[in-house]
Design a protein that fits this description.
The chain folds into 3 domains: 80 residues, Helicase, Ruva Protein, domain 3; 156 residues, Rossmann fold (3-Layer(aba) Sandwich); 68 residues, Winged helix-like DNA-binding domain superfamily/Winged helix DNA-binding domain (Arc Repressor Mutant, subunit A). It is globular. The protein is 45% helix and 12% strand. The strands form 2 sheets. Strands 2-3-4-1-5 form a 5-stranded parallel beta sheet, sandwiched between helices. A 3-stranded antiparallel beta sheet has the order 6-8-7. Strand 7 and strand 8 form a beta hairpin. It is built from 13 helices and 8 strands. It is α/β, with parallel strands linked by helices. The structure holds adenosine-5'-triphosphate and magnesium ion (MG).
Length: 357
Protein backbone atom coordinates (compact mmCIF):
# COMPACT_ATOMS: atom_id res chain seq x y z
CA UNK A 1 0.00 0.00 0.00
CA UNK A 2 1.26 3.46 -0.80
CA UNK A 3 0.21 4.76 2.57
CA UNK A 4 2.63 7.66 2.71
CA UNK A 5 2.98 8.55 -0.94
CA UNK A 6 0.70 11.59 -0.91
CA UNK A 7 1.71 12.75 2.51
CA UNK A 8 4.01 15.54 3.48
CA UNK A 9 7.39 14.16 4.52
CA UNK A 10 8.67 14.99 7.98
CA UNK A 11 11.39 17.17 6.49
CA UNK A 12 9.00 18.98 4.14
CA UNK A 13 6.99 22.12 4.79
CA UNK A 14 4.15 23.99 3.16
CA UNK A 15 5.87 27.22 4.15
CA UNK A 16 8.56 28.70 1.96
CA UNK A 17 9.17 31.68 4.22
CA UNK A 18 6.94 31.80 7.26
CA UNK A 19 8.34 35.16 8.41
CA UNK A 20 6.39 36.76 5.56
CA UNK A 21 3.23 36.14 7.62
CA UNK A 22 4.49 38.19 10.57
CA UNK A 23 2.47 41.34 11.13
CA UNK A 24 5.67 43.38 10.97
CA UNK A 25 6.81 41.94 7.62
CA UNK A 26 6.97 44.69 5.01
CA UNK A 27 6.35 43.49 1.44
CA UNK A 28 8.19 45.23 -1.41
CA UNK A 29 4.95 46.56 -2.85
CA UNK A 30 1.76 47.63 -1.12
CA UNK A 31 -1.03 47.10 -3.61
CA UNK A 32 -3.97 49.51 -3.31
CA UNK A 33 -2.06 51.98 -1.16
CA UNK A 34 -0.15 53.68 -3.97
CA UNK A 35 -2.18 56.89 -3.75
CA UNK A 36 -1.76 57.21 -0.01
CA UNK A 37 2.00 56.70 -0.28
CA UNK A 38 2.15 59.30 -3.05
CA UNK A 39 0.15 61.74 -0.96
CA UNK A 40 2.48 61.40 2.03
CA UNK A 41 5.55 61.62 -0.22
CA UNK A 42 4.19 64.82 -1.76
CA UNK A 43 3.88 66.37 1.70
CA UNK A 44 7.51 65.56 2.40
CA UNK A 45 8.89 66.52 -1.01
CA UNK A 46 9.29 70.28 -0.30
CA UNK A 47 11.87 69.30 2.33
CA UNK A 48 14.09 67.92 -0.43
CA UNK A 49 13.99 71.30 -2.13
CA UNK A 50 15.04 73.27 0.93
CA UNK A 51 11.50 74.32 1.78
CA UNK A 52 9.21 73.46 4.67
CA UNK A 53 7.13 70.29 4.50
CA UNK A 54 3.42 69.82 5.09
CA UNK A 55 1.84 68.00 8.03
CA UNK A 56 -0.60 65.13 7.56
CA UNK A 57 -3.18 63.62 9.88
CA UNK A 58 -3.70 60.00 8.85
CA UNK A 59 -6.61 57.96 10.12
CA UNK A 60 -8.30 54.63 9.40
CA UNK A 61 -9.35 51.31 10.93
CA UNK A 62 -6.85 48.76 12.27
CA UNK A 63 -4.88 46.53 9.92
CA UNK A 64 -5.35 48.45 6.69
CA UNK A 65 -1.81 49.44 5.87
CA UNK A 66 -1.27 52.79 7.59
CA UNK A 67 1.93 51.76 9.33
CA UNK A 68 3.09 49.75 6.34
CA UNK A 69 2.55 52.74 4.03
CA UNK A 70 4.47 55.18 6.21
CA UNK A 71 7.34 52.72 6.65
CA UNK A 72 7.53 52.38 2.88
CA UNK A 73 7.65 56.11 2.34
CA UNK A 74 10.40 56.42 4.97
CA UNK A 75 12.44 53.63 3.36
CA UNK A 76 12.23 55.31 -0.02
CA UNK A 77 13.15 58.65 1.49
CA UNK A 78 16.25 57.09 3.05
CA UNK A 79 17.24 55.66 -0.33
CA UNK A 80 16.78 59.04 -1.97
CA UNK A 81 18.55 61.51 0.32
CA UNK A 82 20.56 62.05 3.47
CA UNK A 83 19.39 65.62 3.84
CA UNK A 84 16.04 64.69 5.35
CA UNK A 85 16.13 62.63 8.53
CA UNK A 86 13.18 60.34 9.18
CA UNK A 87 12.02 59.71 12.74
CA UNK A 88 9.41 57.00 13.32
CA UNK A 89 7.87 56.59 16.76
CA UNK A 90 5.20 54.20 17.96
CA UNK A 91 3.37 56.20 20.60
CA UNK A 92 1.94 53.11 22.24
CA UNK A 93 5.43 52.01 23.17
CA UNK A 94 6.63 55.58 23.77
CA UNK A 95 3.66 57.34 25.32
CA UNK A 96 5.19 60.22 27.31
CA UNK A 97 7.06 63.33 26.27
CA UNK A 98 10.22 62.15 28.00
CA UNK A 99 10.23 58.73 26.34
CA UNK A 100 9.61 60.31 22.96
CA UNK A 101 12.34 62.89 23.36
CA UNK A 102 14.84 60.18 24.34
CA UNK A 103 13.80 58.08 21.35
CA UNK A 104 14.16 61.03 18.96
CA UNK A 105 17.65 61.72 20.35
CA UNK A 106 18.67 58.13 19.79
CA UNK A 107 17.28 58.05 16.27
CA UNK A 108 19.20 61.23 15.52
CA UNK A 109 22.36 59.45 16.65
CA UNK A 110 22.72 61.06 20.09
CA UNK A 111 23.10 58.29 22.63
CA UNK A 112 24.16 60.14 25.79
CA UNK A 113 20.62 60.57 27.04
CA UNK A 114 21.18 59.06 30.47
CA UNK A 115 20.41 61.30 33.48
CA UNK A 116 19.45 64.24 31.32
CA UNK A 117 16.31 66.33 31.66
CA UNK A 118 13.70 66.69 28.93
CA UNK A 119 14.66 70.33 28.23
CA UNK A 120 18.35 69.51 27.84
CA UNK A 121 17.54 66.66 25.49
CA UNK A 122 15.20 68.80 23.43
CA UNK A 123 18.01 71.33 23.00
CA UNK A 124 20.14 68.52 21.57
CA UNK A 125 17.34 67.60 19.17
CA UNK A 126 16.99 71.23 18.07
CA UNK A 127 20.69 71.54 17.35
CA UNK A 128 20.86 68.36 15.27
CA UNK A 129 17.47 68.63 13.56
CA UNK A 130 17.79 72.27 12.57
CA UNK A 131 20.95 71.55 10.57
CA UNK A 132 18.84 69.55 8.15
CA UNK A 133 15.15 68.70 7.73
CA UNK A 134 13.15 66.05 9.55
CA UNK A 135 10.12 63.88 8.90
CA UNK A 136 8.41 62.95 12.14
CA UNK A 137 5.99 60.04 11.95
CA UNK A 138 4.09 59.56 15.20
CA UNK A 139 2.13 56.32 14.90
CA UNK A 140 -0.81 55.32 17.16
CA UNK A 141 -0.99 58.85 18.59
CA UNK A 142 -4.25 58.08 20.37
CA UNK A 143 -2.18 56.13 22.91
CA UNK A 144 -0.24 59.21 24.00
CA UNK A 145 -0.43 60.36 27.59
CA UNK A 146 1.21 63.73 26.93
CA UNK A 147 1.39 66.05 23.98
CA UNK A 148 3.86 68.78 24.97
CA UNK A 149 6.55 67.34 22.73
CA UNK A 150 4.28 68.02 19.75
CA UNK A 151 4.10 71.67 20.60
CA UNK A 152 7.90 71.86 20.95
CA UNK A 153 8.49 70.05 17.67
CA UNK A 154 6.04 72.29 15.81
CA UNK A 155 7.39 75.44 17.36
CA UNK A 156 11.13 74.84 17.37
CA UNK A 157 12.06 72.55 14.51
CA UNK A 158 12.06 74.67 11.39
CA UNK A 159 12.00 72.39 8.37
CA UNK A 160 9.82 69.37 8.98
CA UNK A 161 6.78 67.30 8.12
CA UNK A 162 4.79 65.89 11.00
CA UNK A 163 2.72 62.81 10.18
CA UNK A 164 0.23 61.75 12.86
CA UNK A 165 -1.40 58.33 12.56
CA UNK A 166 -4.41 56.99 14.45
CA UNK A 167 -7.55 54.85 14.22
CA UNK A 168 -9.79 57.70 15.32
CA UNK A 169 -10.91 60.46 12.98
CA UNK A 170 -11.97 62.63 15.91
CA UNK A 171 -8.69 62.37 17.84
CA UNK A 172 -7.60 65.60 16.26
CA UNK A 173 -10.61 67.55 17.57
CA UNK A 174 -9.54 67.14 21.20
CA UNK A 175 -6.06 68.53 20.63
CA UNK A 176 -4.98 71.72 22.33
CA UNK A 177 -5.79 74.73 20.13
CA UNK A 178 -2.19 75.89 20.23
CA UNK A 179 -1.06 72.59 18.75
CA UNK A 180 -3.93 72.44 16.29
CA UNK A 181 -3.28 75.87 14.86
CA UNK A 182 0.43 75.16 14.47
CA UNK A 183 -0.16 71.81 12.82
CA UNK A 184 -2.43 73.13 10.06
CA UNK A 185 -2.44 69.56 8.87
CA UNK A 186 -4.07 67.99 5.88
CA UNK A 187 -6.18 64.90 6.45
CA UNK A 188 -5.63 61.57 4.75
CA UNK A 189 -8.14 58.80 5.26
CA UNK A 190 -7.27 55.15 4.71
CA UNK A 191 -10.45 53.36 3.73
CA UNK A 192 -10.96 49.62 4.34
CA UNK A 193 -10.08 47.27 1.49
CA UNK A 194 -12.89 45.63 -0.43
CA UNK A 195 -13.03 41.92 -1.29
CA UNK A 196 -10.95 42.19 -4.48
CA UNK A 197 -8.30 44.35 -2.84
CA UNK A 198 -8.10 41.97 0.10
CA UNK A 199 -7.65 39.08 -2.33
CA UNK A 200 -4.76 40.85 -4.11
CA UNK A 201 -3.01 41.58 -0.83
CA UNK A 202 -3.32 38.06 0.53
CA UNK A 203 -2.35 36.55 -2.82
CA UNK A 204 0.86 38.52 -2.71
CA UNK A 205 1.57 37.19 0.79
CA UNK A 206 0.93 33.64 -0.34
CA UNK A 207 3.67 34.03 -2.93
CA UNK A 208 6.08 35.23 -0.27
CA UNK A 209 5.15 32.71 2.38
CA UNK A 210 4.14 29.40 0.78
CA UNK A 211 5.44 26.75 -1.56
CA UNK A 212 3.61 27.33 -4.89
CA UNK A 213 0.34 25.46 -5.38
CA UNK A 214 -0.29 24.33 -1.79
CA UNK A 215 -3.43 26.43 -1.28
CA UNK A 216 -6.66 24.98 -2.62
CA UNK A 217 -8.79 27.66 -4.20
CA UNK A 218 -11.84 27.38 -1.96
CA UNK A 219 -9.67 27.40 1.18
CA UNK A 220 -7.99 30.63 0.08
CA UNK A 221 -11.32 32.17 -0.90
CA UNK A 222 -12.70 31.49 2.57
CA UNK A 223 -9.72 33.25 4.15
CA UNK A 224 -10.17 36.18 1.76
CA UNK A 225 -13.86 36.46 2.59
CA UNK A 226 -13.31 36.34 6.36
CA UNK A 227 -10.48 38.84 6.17
CA UNK A 228 -12.52 41.27 4.08
CA UNK A 229 -15.39 40.96 6.57
CA UNK A 230 -13.13 41.76 9.51
CA UNK A 231 -11.43 44.52 7.52
CA UNK A 232 -8.11 43.77 9.21
CA UNK A 233 -5.39 42.24 7.04
CA UNK A 234 -3.81 40.75 10.17
CA UNK A 235 -6.79 38.38 10.34
CA UNK A 236 -5.80 37.01 6.93
CA UNK A 237 -2.16 36.57 7.90
CA UNK A 238 -3.21 34.79 11.07
CA UNK A 239 -5.70 32.49 9.34
CA UNK A 240 -3.25 31.56 6.60
CA UNK A 241 -0.61 30.59 9.11
CA UNK A 242 -3.05 28.61 11.26
CA UNK A 243 -4.63 26.78 8.32
CA UNK A 244 -1.20 25.79 7.06
CA UNK A 245 -0.15 24.57 10.51
CA UNK A 246 -3.28 22.46 10.74
CA UNK A 247 -2.60 21.02 7.28
CA UNK A 248 1.00 20.24 8.24
CA UNK A 249 -0.12 18.55 11.45
CA UNK A 250 -2.17 16.25 9.26
CA UNK A 251 0.76 15.77 6.89
CA UNK A 252 -1.34 17.14 4.06
CA UNK A 253 0.37 18.40 0.93
CA UNK A 254 -2.49 20.82 0.34
CA UNK A 255 -4.28 23.38 2.49
CA UNK A 256 -7.93 22.49 2.06
CA UNK A 257 -11.23 24.15 2.87
CA UNK A 258 -11.50 21.97 5.95
CA UNK A 259 -8.15 23.24 7.26
CA UNK A 260 -9.23 26.84 6.69
CA UNK A 261 -12.52 26.19 8.49
CA UNK A 262 -10.69 24.67 11.42
CA UNK A 263 -8.35 27.64 11.61
CA UNK A 264 -11.38 29.91 11.76
CA UNK A 265 -12.90 27.99 14.62
CA UNK A 266 -9.68 28.35 16.52
CA UNK A 267 -9.62 32.08 15.86
CA UNK A 268 -13.16 32.38 17.19
CA UNK A 269 -12.04 31.38 20.63
CA UNK A 270 -9.83 34.32 21.25
CA UNK A 271 -8.92 37.71 19.93
CA UNK A 272 -5.87 38.37 17.85
CA UNK A 273 -3.30 40.35 19.73
CA UNK A 274 -0.83 42.85 18.46
CA UNK A 275 2.62 42.54 19.99
CA UNK A 276 2.09 45.66 22.06
CA UNK A 277 -1.29 44.47 23.29
CA UNK A 278 -2.64 43.36 26.63
CA UNK A 279 -1.50 40.81 29.18
CA UNK A 280 -3.57 37.73 29.85
CA UNK A 281 -5.04 39.26 33.00
CA UNK A 282 -6.05 42.39 31.13
CA UNK A 283 -7.57 40.34 28.33
CA UNK A 284 -9.69 38.45 30.83
CA UNK A 285 -10.86 41.63 32.57
CA UNK A 286 -11.67 43.15 29.19
CA UNK A 287 -13.74 40.16 28.19
CA UNK A 288 -15.75 40.39 31.43
CA UNK A 289 -16.42 44.05 30.69
CA UNK A 290 -17.36 43.27 27.12
CA UNK A 291 -19.97 40.77 28.25
CA UNK A 292 -21.23 42.99 31.07
CA UNK A 293 -21.02 46.49 29.72
CA UNK A 294 -22.16 49.46 31.83
CA UNK A 295 -21.81 47.73 35.17
CA UNK A 296 -20.40 49.07 38.42
CA UNK A 297 -16.73 48.47 39.01
CA UNK A 298 -17.45 46.59 42.26
CA UNK A 299 -19.75 44.14 40.46
CA UNK A 300 -17.15 43.58 37.77
CA UNK A 301 -14.54 42.88 40.42
CA UNK A 302 -16.85 40.27 41.98
CA UNK A 303 -17.27 38.57 38.58
CA UNK A 304 -13.54 38.67 38.06
CA UNK A 305 -12.98 36.94 41.41
CA UNK A 306 -15.65 34.38 40.64
CA UNK A 307 -13.75 33.48 37.50
CA UNK A 308 -10.68 32.83 39.62
CA UNK A 309 -9.02 36.25 39.18
CA UNK A 310 -6.19 36.72 41.65
CA UNK A 311 -5.65 40.48 41.71
CA UNK A 312 -6.66 42.50 44.77
CA UNK A 313 -9.17 45.32 44.30
CA UNK A 314 -6.54 48.07 44.08
CA UNK A 315 -4.65 46.29 41.30
CA UNK A 316 -7.93 45.53 39.55
CA UNK A 317 -8.70 49.25 39.63
CA UNK A 318 -5.30 50.00 38.11
CA UNK A 319 -6.01 47.56 35.28
CA UNK A 320 -9.30 49.34 34.66
CA UNK A 321 -7.41 52.64 34.50
CA UNK A 322 -4.96 51.18 32.01
CA UNK A 323 -7.73 49.78 29.83
CA UNK A 324 -9.37 53.16 29.86
CA UNK A 325 -6.17 54.97 28.99
CA UNK A 326 -5.73 52.68 26.03
CA UNK A 327 -9.30 53.35 24.98
CA UNK A 328 -10.54 49.78 25.30
CA UNK A 329 -13.22 50.93 27.72
CA UNK A 330 -14.93 54.09 28.92
CA UNK A 331 -15.24 54.88 32.58
CA UNK A 332 -17.87 57.19 34.04
CA UNK A 333 -17.82 58.33 37.64
CA UNK A 334 -21.23 59.00 39.12
CA UNK A 335 -21.96 60.66 42.42
CA UNK A 336 -25.20 60.99 44.36
CA UNK A 337 -27.93 58.90 42.69
CA UNK A 338 -29.21 55.68 44.11
CA UNK A 339 -25.81 53.98 44.10
CA UNK A 340 -23.90 56.77 45.82
CA UNK A 341 -20.41 57.37 44.41
CA UNK A 342 -19.44 54.70 41.97
CA UNK A 343 -17.68 54.02 38.71
CA UNK A 344 -19.55 52.65 35.72
CA UNK A 345 -17.45 50.80 33.17
CA UNK A 346 -18.46 50.54 29.56
CA UNK A 347 -16.92 48.50 26.75
CA UNK A 348 -15.74 50.80 23.99
CA UNK A 349 -17.32 49.82 20.70
CA UNK A 350 -14.98 52.21 18.97
CA UNK A 351 -12.14 49.89 19.87
CA UNK A 352 -11.18 47.66 17.03
CA UNK A 353 -7.66 47.09 18.24
CA UNK A 354 -8.42 43.52 19.11
CA UNK A 355 -9.53 42.16 15.84
CA UNK A 356 -12.55 40.01 16.32
CA UNK A 357 -14.19 37.89 13.77
N1 LIG B 1 -1.81 47.05 0.77
C1 LIG B 1 -1.16 46.12 1.46
N2 LIG B 1 -0.31 45.29 0.84
C2 LIG B 1 0.37 44.34 1.51
N3 LIG B 1 0.28 44.16 2.83
C3 LIG B 1 -0.57 44.97 3.52
C4 LIG B 1 -1.33 45.98 2.87
N4 LIG B 1 -2.08 46.62 3.79
C5 LIG B 1 -1.81 46.02 4.95
N5 LIG B 1 -0.91 45.04 4.80
C6 LIG B 1 -0.36 44.18 5.86
O1 LIG B 1 -1.31 44.01 6.87
C7 LIG B 1 -0.73 44.10 8.16
C8 LIG B 1 -1.35 45.23 8.93
O2 LIG B 1 -1.02 46.46 8.31
P1 LIG B 1 -0.54 47.74 9.15
O3 LIG B 1 0.34 47.31 10.26
O4 LIG B 1 0.03 48.73 8.21
O5 LIG B 1 -1.93 48.21 9.73
P2 LIG B 1 -2.37 49.63 10.37
O6 LIG B 1 -3.31 50.26 9.41
O7 LIG B 1 -1.16 50.39 10.75
O8 LIG B 1 -3.18 49.09 11.64
P3 LIG B 1 -3.25 49.66 13.14
O9 LIG B 1 -4.17 50.84 13.09
O10 LIG B 1 -3.84 48.52 13.92
O11 LIG B 1 -1.87 50.01 13.56
C9 LIG B 1 0.76 44.28 7.93
O12 LIG B 1 1.41 43.05 7.98
C10 LIG B 1 0.83 44.87 6.54
O13 LIG B 1 2.05 44.56 5.89
MG1 LIG C 1 -0.27 50.66 12.62
Amino acid sequence: MALFKDMLGSDESLFKNEVALDYSFLPKLLPHRENQQRYIAASIRPLLMGKNGRNVFVFGAPGIGKTAAIRHVINELEDETEDVMPIYINCWQKNTTFKIIVDICEQLGYKLTHNKRTEELFDVIKTIANKKAVVFAFDEVDKLEEYDFLYSVLEEIYRKSVILITNYSDWFDDLDDRVKSRLMSETLEFRPYNLEETRDILKQRIEYAFVPGVWEKDAFELVVKKTAESGDMRAGLYLMREAANIAEDKSSRKITLQHAEEAMKKADKFTIKKSTDLTEDEQSILSIIKNNSEKKIGDLFAMYQEKGGKLVYKSFQRKIEKLEKNKFINVKKTSGGKDGNTTIVKYSTKTKKLTEF
